[in-house]
Amino acid sequence: MDNMFEKIKDLFQNHGVFIKVNKGNKIFLEGERAKEIYYIQSGVISISQESETGKELTIRICGHDNIIGEGSLFCNLVYNSMTAKVLEPSTLYVLSRKSLEHLLEEQPTVMVEYMKWLQTENLKHQSRLRDLVLNGKKGALFSTLIRLSNTYGKPVENDAIFIDFQLTNTEIANLCATSREMINRMLNDLKKHEIITFDKGFITIHDLQFLKNEIACENCPLQICRID
Question: In Å, how far are 82, 88, 129, 132, 194 from 29, measured between CA atoms?
Fold first, then answer.
């Protein structure tokens, strides 16, 4: 983490309220008034939206050193556009929108770094949505697996990548904006061709280049091609 993000982190730790949240709890809900910004110290939190038909689309899966609720800062957006759900017990620092805005206004250099960080987050979101729209269901899964490998991947033997984060097929389907049944079929097909293996919700990718070739991967910078 660079020194400037450390300064943003310090704002939360020095001025925010420390909270612990259990698995399954919601930190904020889509449609609620947006009042606070959160820095994640530990844990895992999903950020999702729900369609008019009730289908859930997971936008991000955030771990430590991520900020959530950031979209409401310095704008007239007064309602949360997404829901934040705790996937693993988490600890966070909370600042009100007004407090963080005031702190950033007092420290222009930190504000500039915050805006740079926010722009990177926007590029990540645009990249994910582009893949969902342009690459079809299979491409959505392949790009999601690539992003998971960049975010939670650990190298193991034979050049494989172990995704050190447990996901159900339903959670993967929500990341890909498709059905669990379709994800089941596509994952099993990848397993049949020895592209991946999976065990108790943990996926190991054995041929990452195959996934990249199938979606004509543009090899975006790693700070963009992520799921958090």
Answer: 6, 17, 21, 23, 40
To the nearest 10 degrees (0 to 180), the angle between helices 97-106 and 3-15 is 130
* CA-CA-CA-CA dihedral for 80, 51, 149, 37, to nearest 10: 0
Q: How many CB atoms lie within 10 A of CB 222?
A: 10
Query: What is the widest separation between alpha-carbon atoms in the chain?
Result: 57
Q: Alpha helices of 16-75 — where are they, by DSSP H?
A: none
Residue 226 tokens, joined: 């992520």
- Residue range 181-224, pLDDT digits in tens: 999 999 999 999 999 999 999 999 999 999 999 988 888 888 89
CB 5 within 8 A of CB 115: no
Q: Is the dihedral of CA 220, 148, 216, 136 positive or negative?
A: negative
Which pTM does this prediction carry? 0.88
**Phi and psi at residue 202, to the nearest 5°:** -105, 130
